[in-house]
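It is worth pausing here to work through a concrete case rather than discussing structure prediction in the abstract. The textbook approach is simple: state the sequence, then state the predicted structure, then interpret. We follow exactly that order.
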Amino acid sequence: MHAKRLALVIALFSGPVMAQTIAQTANHKAWQDGMDGRLFWTNKACGTTITGPIAYSGFDAVPDVASKMPIGQACGEAADGITNLCNGPPAYKAAIAKGIQKVVCNYGGPGKRAVSISGGTLSYTVDFPGKYDIDGAHFVQYYVAKNL
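Step two, the predicted structure:
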């Protein structure tokens, strides 16, 4: 009898949690696929093997985040900025090949867009809603050109 009650309690409380985990897993895969698609072209242009993990926890903390912004696309803007530089003067391509091995994308909150480079990792923090006079790709491109 006690075992039946325990099984019922587990079934009742694990259902919604499991569904959310499945939904998050699907979202994470879609976001990462978007980022990886952008990095494919970056690596092709730069002759690199840059990886691009997305820090999911910050995005997951925003209710209905998947319906509010295309996260893979937003994170991929960092890759686009790097690609722009590799398609330019050879000195940029060489500096990127030497100085960037990973691009980590985070969510920072409204008005908290940022970019930094440390130890071979470019950290790109996206926000929404954000109103800027420059898109994310050029924001990263200008930063990398000045700081790498």
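Step three, interpretation. Residues 2-46 form the longest helix (45 residues). Residues 2-147 form one domain.
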